[in-house]
Specification:
Length: 322
């Protein structure tokens, strides 16, 4: 009996040692970052720079796997159903908290994934055709109130973060503005802005600001919660309508159930990687603002809060995917 007990104890010690060594060895094989967007997109370019720097930080091969399609659903599901061992991560944007409300079968990120780190963020800019003579947010609201339903405003899609921002502004300011989604993006909207078919747009700063500099568009507000150096001179929407602030973000996720020790190691590595000058430059080149330090403790609540907040405005306004 004593021999059996002794052997059992030895076996238990061995099991603990094996588990400890296994954890300490992470990562001991390639890590895959799933990107639910096409190769060559801005998101893809950013994550490839991030992956290249993460190789050095973690001391392991990091592979980018593009699984585009079905509004990001294919890649998201693939990552969420992967083994929770730290070797499959997901790079996604704000759309991950919008899709569950609009796309059938889209997983709830708070139930299937662990938010690791916010990589970057961007507000959106509200701009009007300069020929309208509107120069301030107050004038924009007054113009819309005097012409209910007559002002047409573009975004790059139904349920997109700019669309959510527009709906929140309409709700907060008590105005009726027609939303016009453009599948072709801002390039298509710009043609109609210049011809007079559209009066305003809510879009990425990188798309809007060059035309504001030329004088064809007037920026009246950014949807940020506070002033940004990159948008000097553009007032923030939250100064008048705090509930309408919307910031787009991108970040990394791991399958739920990933060991805490692995998450801690990834969190530390990502903080260092996101602060790398090459990563910062890559993000800035497409109008994103790097978000150092990348704190898991801050990113997770943002994901949860945005999921609930955006879902409420989608339900309230009866927004459906097209």
């Amino acid at each position: 009996m004593n021999l059996i007990k002794c052997l059992a104890r030895v076996g238990g010690v061995c099991a603990v040692l094996v588990a400890t060594l296994s954890q300490a060895a992470y990562p001991d094989r390639p890590i895959t970052i799933v990107v639910p967007f096409p190769a060559g997109s801005a998101a893809d370019a950013n994550v490839r720079v991030l992956a290249e720097r993460l190789k050095t930080t973690l001391g392991a091969t990091v592979v980018v796997d593009n699984k585009a399609g079905a509004n990001g659903l294919i890649g998201t599901k693939a990552a969420a159903s992967a083994a929770a061992d730290g070797y499959t991560l997901l790079y996604h944007s704000t759309s991950i908290v919008i899709s569950p409300w609009l796309v059938k079968g889209a997983p709830d990120p708070t139930k299937t994934l662990v938010p690791l780190a916010q990589v970057a963020s961007t507000p959106y800019v509200i701009a009007v055709r300069s020929s309208l003579g509107i120069r301030t947010l107050a004038e924009f609201v007054a113009y819309a109130r005097s012409r209910p339903g007559a002002m047409a405003c573009s975004t790059y899609g139904v349920g997109s973060p700019p669309h959510i921002a527009l709906e929140l502004l309409k709700q907060s300011a008590g105005i009726d503005v027609l939303h016009v989604p453009y599948r072709a993006g801002f390039a298509g909207a710009l043609v109609d802005l210049e011809s007079g078919q559209l009066q305003c747009a809510v879009d990425l700063p990188a798309n809007v600001m060059p035309h504001a500099a030329r004088g064809t568009l007037t920026t009246i507000a950014a949807t940020a919660a506070s002033n940004l150096p990159s948008l000097k001179g553009v007032p923030v929407l939250s100064a008048e309508y705090p509930a309408a602030a919307v910031v787009g973000w991108s970040g990394l996720f791991a399958p739920i159930g990933t060991p805490p020790e692995v998450l801690k190691q990834l969190d530390a590595a990502l903080k260092q990687t996101i602060a790398d000058p090459a990563v910062v430059t890559s993000l800035q080149n497409v109008g994103m603002s790097p978000t150092p330090p990348a704190e898991q403790s801050e990113f997770a609540p943002r994901v949860t809060n945005d999921l609930a907040r955006f879902g409420e405005i989608i339900r309230r306004n009866g927004i459906t995917a097209q």
